[in-house]
# Entry
Amino acid sequence: MVLTLVTVLAAYVNLGAFNPVVAMAIAIFKATLVVLYFMHVKYSSRLTKLVVLTGIFFLVILLGETMMDYASRGFLPTLPSIQ
Amino acid sequence: MSNAVAQAEGHGHGPHHPALQHHFDTMGQQKEAAVIGMWVFLLTEILFFGGLFTAYLIYRTWYFDAFAAASSTLSIAWGGLNTAVLIGSSLTMAMAVRGAQTNKRTATINWLILTMVLGAVFLGVKVIEYADKFEHHHVPGASFVWAPEHEGAGGAEAAEGGTHPATTMSADQLQRTTQIYFSLYFTMTGLHALHMIVGIVLMMVITWMAWKGKFDSEWYTPVEMSGLYWHFVDIVWIFLFPLLYLVERHQ
# Structure
């Protein structure tokens, strides 16, 4: 738990060449720790874990598919007036 | 055995914990139902914030330069502090749940109060940040003005041929795209702050219940459910912070 606090400080003294992927990876790692340990999901029934995974699965589809859709069309904006 | 169980005897069937509702067989079953119910609600919250995150991702891909410039006007110091404060409040919340679990009434109340204090600190910092936005006319709407000469991040670098490739946007387009960033910023952090306020009110109710001695090691479910909500709001911020504050801070 204390480690999580440390991670914040370590991660955000960041003004070097900071890749958003790394920032996201750290965020996902922290969120996973919170979900598993603070929210006791690690010690919960399998049904609870399934419900949590469903939520994550939904997010993956929402973000992944939406971005793939735009990527497949070259990220054309729907309103070409602002380019 | 707590006093609570003794009081439950004599109403038509065997003794059970007074908090056990009659459509459940055991406390364990009741608790699992509560946990799953809470998580289903949190899934709807994921729906809610997920949509906003998706919108943010798309606009950020389209107008990266404008988003980077707008993001650099945010204070990493305040944002980082808020992140630490919120994670700390999740820690105190977990300690409060543990206190309820181990039948320590005073410790539970103290940890809950500490959680609320940290939540209030978070909101206070947000007030400071928002006030700063108002001053700089960064609030989307009629009074919005994006003036790169004064921001120092966007305009100055373009002039020096710095890290940002010379933006091909006209000044008008820059106004509109940075305004999009701030719209998303206020919507997402505003809704998050609203959830924080709800969470703090929830904590007040739970603290009152703990004060009244309603929780024991066999039944502390409201504390735990409020904890789940609180941790979720923390997780939303864990993602909000890098996405909103840390857009290309290469210098």
Summary: Chain A touches chain B through 44 residues (CB under 8 Å). Helices of chain A lie at 2-11, 20-38, 46-72.
